[in-house]
Amino acid sequence: MIVLATDFGLTGPYLGQVKAVLARQAPGVPVIDLFADLPAYEPRLAAYLLAAYALWFEPGDVILAVVDPGVGSDRPGVVVEADGRWLVGPDNGLFELLRRRAGVVHAWQLDAAGARPTFHGRDVFAPAAARLATGFFPEGEEATLSTRSGWPDDLAAIVYVDHYGNAMTGIRASTLAADAVIEAGGAALRRGRTFSDVRTGDALWYENANGLAEIAVNGGSAARTLGLATGSPVIVREP
Amino acid sequence: MIVLATDFGLTGPYLGQVKAVLARQAPGVPVIDLFADLPAYEPRLAAYLLAAYALWFEPGDVILAVVDPGVGSDRPGVVVEADGRWLVGPDNGLFELLRRRAGVVHAWQLDAAGARPTFHGRDVFAPAAARLATGFFPEGEEATLSTRSGWPDDLAAIVYVDHYGNAMTGIRASTLAADAVIEAGGAALRRGRTFSDVRTGDALWYENANGLAEIAVNGGSAARTLGLATGSPVIVREP
Amino acid sequence: MIVLATDFGLTGPYLGQVKAVLARQAPGVPVIDLFADLPAYEPRLAAYLLAAYALWFEPGDVILAVVDPGVGSDRPGVVVEADGRWLVGPDNGLFELLRRRAGVVHAWQLDAAGARPTFHGRDVFAPAAARLATGFFPEGEEATLSTRSGWPDDLAAIVYVDHYGNAMTGIRASTLAADAVIEAGGAALRRGRTFSDVRTGDALWYENANGLAEIAVNGGSAARTLGLATGSPVIVREP
Lengths: 239, 239, 239
Known about the structure:
3 copies of one chain form a homotrimer.
Chain A (H helix, E strand, L loop, with lengths): L1 E5 L6 H13 L5 E5 L7 H12 L7 E5 L10 E6 L2 E6 L5 H6 L3 E6 L9 H14 L21 E7 L5 E6 L8 E4 L2 E3 L13 E5 L4 E6 L4 H5 L8 E3 L2
Parallel strand pairs in A: 1-2, 1-3, 3-5
Antiparallel strand pairs in A: 4-5, 4-6, 7-8, 8-12, 9-10, 9-13, 11-12
Helix pairs in contact in A: 1-4
């Protein structure tokens, strides 16, 4: 299975051309759209989201991940193996949290010689993903993935707002006490199990289906009600 | 074929994770996005839309349908067989109109024990859809689908606005006289065969490609011109 | 491979029903979404975009292209063969630039008798695309594709704005001098190789990954910064 997690947008020709390359070079392999709206220009925010979702996939799955404001500059492209999952994308911090959370990590650098400088997703990353998905091991010597030692293990900020207006933080719910309070947009929110644990119109936080602490309003939009957007800070208070 | 009709949105990780489950558990079965923007929180409006579209599919096809404001509460999940089409989703009225219009209907209850309370689409409905699509019959005793006897057979309201701004009503065009007038947004609209039956900028109603009475403006947006949104009432006048 | 390039929108039931027809009638053939947001009602603008992208696909690939304000009127549907690529859609100018740029072009007319007047994409074009993709040659006598002799070979206007806010022109970059200046939204832009050739917040133009002259702002939205939308004129100054 090849999983696409990018900031390319669903509309427009980018995902389609990536999928055309995959259909030609990895025929018969299912291709799944996971995210087409990772935080554009923000590999740091995307890194926390990606770590929560990529490890839900299975060993052997290939995740093509692109948030790449530096495309065409000299940042290298990489293949990463993290506990058996393959990741392909730019080496700009996007894989930092995966690297920390996975037990076993290997990396290889990709050669972008000859690729169009504006579209490595199609011309470099998709062919690499297709090779991995069809059983080829990365070529060349192992490389060292760059690190971002200043980034925290969990990020007290909104990393994704979904189309209901639910706002995911970069914090793993498992790291928080049961009675932890999350302050966001001026409100102090208590933990629930699901939306219906509070009255319609009320806000709460809960562990979402991939382990992140997520803020929602029952029957409404937390993003609108609380004024939250990707990048908004939150504060955790543990009694 | 597995058909997805949800309010999950196309962006975000929800559809992708559902499709990953389907790719693993029903390999080789085509998966089609029909709606990712059914009216959120509104199973009643969605029920009229779903009935018009689901019966266009063929016996043996499986439709995974989710508009589920009560996820995590104790509303049951169901499998429904309606004239040979399989439907999987919450038993909250979403299948009410299908139930009435289909000749033969059977239902089975789904077991959600152990599923994450916030994502039954991935953890309960997708595995059930995969089993049906790969030839397994539902397990357990037949159940009785809940009913919504107060809902009309056709709904005089907008149930969907498409990206051109065309507004579908919950009324089957076949139930209306040829000279019926639909009042919507303050205008009285006559029936046409297609957009080009009126001048550019003029509004009309016609039978859409799935049998619903639909309101459009030739070369423009009926939603914007007439101020229509999902849930807006319309009035039918039959001379 | 069947490639979809339409103005149907990704949401809503249109693409899904087209894909359901393709899954039934061309089982196993990969279907790729290239554009679901071609300029609605504007076959002329779409024609320049389509020409740049369609010829990136390979001989034998089938492109179902629909921007069709005249659906239900008497404009004919056509199958076009352009240098081995198959195209299916309305004969309303959408294929004009492909016709001019391809070396060898053949055309056949499609029979729409019995189709729903509002949805030829599903009822006429999808079955035709499925037949071509499964190896059937078009039926009947060759026809003559209509022409639009007044349209220029390259269009000095924005033909597409992507979700980053990058604005594609209808001009092939290969027709411009290296030091050509493009005036758009009141700014005079010089050519770069990629975004990172200018400072964050600055605008430039470059040859995009499919050969069009494209306007962007490094780390920002050219559409918003320069006030550009589909159809906005640009001016080329060659020193």
